[in-house]
Write a structure and sequence with these properties.
mainly alpha; about 200 residues
Length: about 200
């Protein structure tokens, strides 16, 4: 890691790019879907069921399924971001749904009694009270993405997985650890950072 620190930093940057973009996309898709199934309970099973099925597909197999997709399959980084986004959806949808459904009904009814519309209740009452649970979903999704992003190197998407696969080919523990240690540190930092944010929101 010391001898190849510039390459380690470069691959760490690629890794953060894959994880960051996929997590943001998962939030933009997962939170609205979580809200949707609180408003339309009949969509609960299809949406959560689909997200559960995606989680059961092995990551390399999912990369293979997505390769023939037009535009996406042309670039490895796009394919990796899409796959990571799909894997991150389940904790995002589930935690958004759980957080909103866990809001005290008396608080919601008090808001209705004050003449608040459904939209106002959502943005001024339910989402603020559910925010710590939603952040917990982002926390889980980010940690999952950090680990899965190492496998993206198998399709040429870059990231710290390049060291891991190179080390496996060379049968070199040093090269494997050069990828595994920074990836583990990223996961720990993400978990710690979101954990602090979650506690702070719970206190508020």
């Amino acid at each position: 890691m010391v001898q190849n620190r510039l390459q380690v930093l470069e691959l760490t940057g690629e890794h953060l790019w894959l994880v960051g973009v996929s997590t943001v996309l998962a939030v933009l898709i997962g939170v609205p879907l979580g809200i949707l199934i609180t408003r339309y309970p009949r969509l609960n099973k299809p949406v959560l069921g689909s997200a559960n099925i995606i989680q059961t597909i092995p990551s390399l197999a999912l990369f293979g399924f997505l390769l023939p997709a037009p535009w996406i399959g042309e670039r490895a980084d796009r394919l990796a971001i899409l796959a990571l986004t799909l894997y991150a959806l389940l904790p995002m949808i589930r935690n958004t749904y759980t957080g909103i459904m866990g809001v005290d009904h008396s608080v919601v009814e008090a808001g209705r009694g004050m003449g608040m519309t459904d939209r106002q209740l959502l943005f001024q009452v339910e989402l603020p009270l559910a925010l710590s649970v939603i952040i917990a979903g982002i926390r889980v999704a980010t940690v999952i993405s950090v680990g899965l992003a190492t496998i993206a190197a198998a399709i040429g998407a870059g990231g710290l997985g390049e060291f891991i696969f190179r080390g496996l080919a060379m049968v070199s523990n040093q090269v494997i650890l050069a990828g595994a240690i920074p990836a583990a540190l990223l996961a720990i930092l993400a978990d710690f950072g979101f954990g602090l944010l979650e506690k702070r929101l719970q206190q508020r």
